[in-house]
Each structure stands twice: as structure tokens, then as C-alpha cells.
């Protein structure tokens, strides 16, 4: 369990290799010790003008849809990737182990 405390992002496969054990054995140990994999949740703090900006966005979108009924079909909304100014974060594959729920 020391590896998990020191490196909570370690993969079960890596632990299995490090300790010459099967993945299943590692998972049983993790379950017995009440460790669970948690996904990282990236959050942004709301600013004071966010509400006004959301209203403005909605009004703009409604205007565009009223002008062109096909407009919404040409807009792509996706949460498959997160783009950050300081680098890419693949939040779909990023897990860390903890004995407490951080959320």
C-alpha cells in the first residue's frame, strides 16, 4: 500500500509488475484495504460576470437559430477532450487511488 500512498496515480498493471503479482490479486488487496479508483474532476471557478455571459450566449444562439433553422446542426458540442492553456489533460483515462472520496 506504500506505493499507492506515494504514487496515487499508479496503474494496477504497474503495481502487479512491481510486486510480481497478478492484476486480480492487486485488485483484491485494493478492495480489502478500501481503496477505490477516482476520476479527476476538472473544475473552473465561476467569476462574477459568468451569469451575464451565459445569458448573452443563449440570446446569441437563439437569434442565430431564428435566423437559420439549420444553424444548430452545424454546431459541434463535445466533452470528449479538454483543452487547457498549460497542456492537454486526458481526463477519461486519468484515475488515482485513495481510501477517501475526494469529491
Care to describe what's here?
- The model has no long low-confidence stretch (mean pLDDT 77).
- Helix 2 crosses helix 3 (23-32).
- It is built from four helices and two strands.
- Helix content is 39%, strand content 8%.
- A two-stranded antiparallel sheet has the order 1-2.
- With 103 residues, it is mostly helical.
- The longest helix is centred in the middle third of the chain and has 18 residues, at 50-67.
- The chain has one domain (2-98).
- It has helices at residues 2-6, 12-18, 23-32, 50-67; strands spanning 36-39, 95-98.
- GO terms for molecular function: nucleic acid binding.
- InterPro entries: RNaseH_sf.
Keywords summarizing the entry:
mainly alpha; 103 residues
Give the biggest beta sheet.
Answer: 2 strands, antiparallel
Helix proportion: 25-40%
Rg, Cα atoms, Å: 22 Å
How many separate domains?
A: 1
Number of helices: 4
What structural category arises from helix and sheet content? mainly alpha
**Element-level helix/strand string:** HHHEHE
Mean pLDDT: 77
Quick one: overall form? elongated
Please state roughly what percent of the residues sit in beta strands, choosing from under 5%, 5-15%, 15-25%, 25-35%, 35-45% or over 45%: 5-15%
What is the topology, as strand order, of the major beta sheet?
Answer: 1-2
Distance between the termini: 22 Å
Oligomer: single chain
Low-pLDDT parts are: none
Number of strands: 2
Amino acid at each position: 500500500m506504500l506505493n499507492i500512498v506515494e504514487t496515487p496515480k499508479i496503474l494496477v498493471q504497474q503495481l502487479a509488475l512491481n510486486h510480481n503479482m497478478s492484476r486480480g490479486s492487486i485488485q483484491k488487496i485494493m478492495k480489502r484495504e478500501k481503496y477505490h479508483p477516482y476520476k479527476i474532476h476538472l473544475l473552473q471557478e465561476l467569476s462574477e460576470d459568468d451569469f451575464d455571459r451565459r445569458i448573452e450566449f443563449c440570446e446569441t444562439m437563439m437569434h442565430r437559430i431564428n435566423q437559420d433553422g439549420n444553424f444548430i446542426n452545424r454546431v459541434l458540442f463535445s466533452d470528449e477532450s479538454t483543452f487547457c492553456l498549460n497542456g492537454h489533460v486526458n481526463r477519461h483515462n486519468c484515475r488515482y487511488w485513495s481510501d477517501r472520496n475526494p469529491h
